[in-house]
Design goal:
Chain lengths: 489, 489
Amino acid sequence: MTVYSELMAFQRQTEALAQIMGRMGWDARTVMPRGANAQRSEEMAALEEVLHARRTDPRIGEWLEAAEASDDVAAANLRELRRDYMRNTRVPARLASELARLAPLSQTAWEEARLAGDVAAFLPWLKQMIALRREEGQAIADGGDPYDALMADYEPETDSETVAATFARMRPRLVALREAVLGAEAPAALTGHFPQEGQLRVSRRLAEHFGYDFTRGRIDLAVHPFSSGSGTDVRITTRVNVEEPFNCFYSTIHEVGHAAYEQGVAADHLLTPIGRGVSMGVHESQSRIYENQLGRSRAFTRWLFEAMVQEFGALSVKDAEAFYAAVNRVNRGYIRTEADEVQYNLHIMLRFDLERALMRGQLEAEDLEEAWNTRFEQDFGYPVDQPAHGVLQDVHWSVGLFGYFPTYALGNIYAGCLQKSLRADLPDLDAQLAEGDTSAATSWLNEKLQRFGAMRAPRATIAAACGFEPDELPLIEYLEAKFSELYRL
Amino acid sequence: MTVYSELMAFQRQTEALAQIMGRMGWDARTVMPRGANAQRSEEMAALEEVLHARRTDPRIGEWLEAAEASDDVAAANLRELRRDYMRNTRVPARLASELARLAPLSQTAWEEARLAGDVAAFLPWLKQMIALRREEGQAIADGGDPYDALMADYEPETDSETVAATFARMRPRLVALREAVLGAEAPAALTGHFPQEGQLRVSRRLAEHFGYDFTRGRIDLAVHPFSSGSGTDVRITTRVNVEEPFNCFYSTIHEVGHAAYEQGVAADHLLTPIGRGVSMGVHESQSRIYENQLGRSRAFTRWLFEAMVQEFGALSVKDAEAFYAAVNRVNRGYIRTEADEVQYNLHIMLRFDLERALMRGQLEAEDLEEAWNTRFEQDFGYPVDQPAHGVLQDVHWSVGLFGYFPTYALGNIYAGCLQKSLRADLPDLDAQLAEGDTSAATSWLNEKLQRFGAMRAPRATIAAACGFEPDELPLIEYLEAKFSELYRL
């Protein structure tokens, strides 16, 4: 047995236990009886302790020092393991356990503060969380940038300077596009009552049409849609609002995109470090291209229009073209998770700048609300009306997720690049999508990207799939073209 | 921190991980996508290895040596831990891992052999399993009886000599009762078509009427009904045969009985060694008294008759009395899991004698089928017609469960004792049951037995609840009275 295979055997068990942890999270959010909450927390804490001990086991350090990569796969596995091991061993156990203890309490405080619209009540928790994550960022960075160190948990090998420069180029064009769109005449929204059972039938058809493999997954209901698991057990959830069926349908397509990446990794990599999506940004590129560039395209909405008429009878919009406009309607709004393709990235940029300043000590918790409100009005053109629509809207910071937000926008940027290349390779795409047939597009994505899992670093994954170095231009050009046409700008 | 509290803190995490293991088993048998099978085996094997390492951790031995019990609860926890630790450390790691590896392969071989009716094909697997479990029994027994040592995994502090003597007293009376019943005129069976949704509605009402707490549990469908989990997350499953609704209804009541024991243990004992049912026999006493002495009573079937008429319309049996007879109809049959109250224990005694002889080296795998068939004809009065109806019918031996079978009959015996005492304390029971109200009976069981979990050893648990030392007479007298009256003997 080589050192490498000894390391991989140990790691394989860790990956298996991590899958169980994910399944427990799925269970808690879908099928768990509500009275089991406290017991479940204790169960998951026990498993987390086992995982933490394995991930910081000193033998990993010795194995990593001695292991040699005999091929590309081994090199990629060692790369992933080295980064994780270094990260995990740099964080003092005391700090890791303080963070684990603080997160659920802080999240509860945030939930209450958001309901009450009381930023001050949340401030003490936020300050503690900022202090601990700053300390963690510094520990991992080891002299480097603490925010970059935290971001690397979600988007490795990407520095925030580059991200900031990209966002700075995008921002004025997106602000201008948003202004133009909101100044133009809005198309009619879809109205009506869409019963849950009908929505779930259409949702299931959508999943099938986007290639979701039900023999290795399932769809359930949850408050917040998510995808969970790797390999042969990748489950998704959706939700239903009987007044607003697009919420259900596009949540489903989005999560099918995430699941396609996990289901699509080559079986050889099952339960190995590279046997999963390489980063949150690349993951989001899959969910976004499924949801937006494919799912919200004029061609595909033509099929969805027919599917909805079949399920629900005549709709409030008269034809497929009006339906396409309704799907892509841009609304004045405050909430990131409800934002359209135009405004979504502006939400992210705002959060990115603020959280980066927080982690670098250039902004303090006390000044966060004002900074948020000022920036929001600059970029969106109207003021925040209440904290629940502003600084208190997202769960992320309450549980310490600093460095996560930019991956949403990186996903959009990557999706823009992938669509450019995909459309060049598939000239008949729109004809296929209009028939509800996504197979050429999803096969292209699997062949070019999904099957490799974490073989390559995030940017390299996108570059290899697209055939060019990713930047923001394909996304911006796609958005400008799509919405200029839709809104006759 | 005392040695005892240190030990209990360690153990609490082990219990929490064991709960996760149970939940993964539930998941695999209810909601898991079928393509996830191989991955799930690997995940569960990884968790099993973690659990095994914790259960044989040498620190437990040191703690147990130094720990002192300050009260009854501590004494009971230490008693449970000492027995488990001694058992686990006496089994060589090599043997434990050989058994773990053999079980799924042997089970698959059994499934195939059963379908093909080919005993010879299963023999090599059975021989290996017998050899390994004999070795394990000897290792645990440390000079004592290997079968008793194995039985103690399911029914601690009970010796097989006593069980054998009890069964020997029961057997002639049960054989005589079976002969008399099958010689008498049989009542009409219930016939008809009972759609799944209706059965599940009645099943849910039954669970509610027997006090199942849905805030700490849920009901799903599975091929074989089971109950799983402890404390605040105790889930049950049932199954539906549209021609035979009693299968669904009495499976549900049976599993609710198991679940009531786990849900009913005092909350103080959550995730401690005594925070669960003390043995399989005592567990079965709860499921059986719910299912049979309460659920199949004339009084309760009166309520069920009305509930079924309400759900399904007029039935093939004309009134509540004919319905009661149909529920308790005794059929000629071969299969333990389909057996009625009269014949069930005869199935168990047959298996007990054979497996005890196998483990003691008094019977070999090659002679098992003939021994089975001879004994079956003696006790049931007709020959086995095919191996799937005989020696190949149960999964137990294929996965090494020698010593488990007697707990089913012990459960029946204990249920008989409990019902005697319960009826003495609750003179109005039948009037309540006829209204579908089991609360006095289930509260009695909780108060007298369930809430104590594993505080007392199995027989002591029953004796304390009943107020007398348990023996087989209450069960035999109950069966003779019930079926003599039903069959006008």
